[in-house]
Amino acid sequence: MKWNNITLATVFLSLAVPGIVGNIIVFIRYVYTSALGTEKKPMDLILIHLAFSNMIIICTTGITDIATLFYFRNFLGDIGCKAMVFLARMARGLSICTTCLLSVVQAVTISPRTTLWTKLKPQTSWQVVPFLLLFWIVNVLISSNLLFYIKSGNSLNMSLPGIFIDHCYMLPSTHKIKWLFLSLMTLRDVIFQSLMGWSSGSMALRLYEHHKRVLYLHSSRCAHNSPPEIRATWSVLILMTCFLFFYWSDFILSFYTGFTGAHDSILLNIKAVLEFGYASFSPYVIISRDIRVPNVLHAH
């Protein structure tokens, strides 16, 4: 085995293993909190769903990339290839939608009670379930074309045109099918990232105004303390910044490799790291900072 493959495998493992552990901790923590709590909080269910989506991304993208580096390219049959690639794309879409929902719910939660946005605030976790089901339906449909065009490399003649995706092979599709699903993915990303940007900006502005009022009312000594709502603001901003960095870095690199037809192994491996970087990093933002906005905001 080449030394660069060993290095890349080490990098992948250093992201995949902590990522899986972190998401398991978040998943168990909020399942435990939700199961024992008398009140089922919507934010707990959203964080559980985000951790579950991240684990799918890491298991399908990270582990298969590591297996490819160790020359186990054809360890999956047709069914395995379809399942891995389909789940990876679907989970990526679920992560985008769930992160957006997390940001929107928090923005609505801290909005003043006099505004109309408070009517949209979910009171129980059951009010969040329809949104999560909708996310699953939308992303399953958007990723459904992969079930028809993904094949195992063992079952195909490599002289056929197509795209080799690590351990699997994607057959060419018609232009109508290609542009249809590409347009659907683009529309999904534009809608949810726009909502994410609006809600994050709105929440940061609301918390900043609240913090200014607190500083005005309290003594200067109290002003040196970091209010819990400020920590919540930084939690969301860090999470959103993390998501946007990995998403747009992956998008730009994918656009470059697709437009130029470049197959440089370094670029492809960087792209693989970016694909599950957010899934590995985000649980530690959630663990280190309480992502839920405190109820003290409503008192002001």
N-to-C series of helices and strands: HHHHHEEEHHHHH
Overall, the morphology is: globular
Approximately how much helix is present in the residues?
over 70%
Annotation, overall tally of beta strands: 3
Low-confidence stretches: 219-225, 293-300
How would a textbook summarize the main sheet? 3 strands, antiparallel
Strand order of the largest sheet: 1-3-2
Radius of gyration: 21 Å
Mean pLDDT rating: 76
Structural class: mainly alpha
Number of helices: 10
What is the straight-line distance between the termini? 62 Å
Q: Which band does the percent of strand residues land in? A: under 5%
Outline of this structure?
With 300 residues, the chain is mostly helical. The protein is 72% helix and 3% strand.
What features would you describe in this structure?
The chain has 300 residues and is mostly helical. 72% of the residues lie in helices and 3% in strands. The chain has ten helices and three strands. It has a three-stranded antiparallel beta sheet. Helix 1 (3-36) packs antiparallel against helix 2 (42-69). The longest helix has 43 residues, at 175-217.
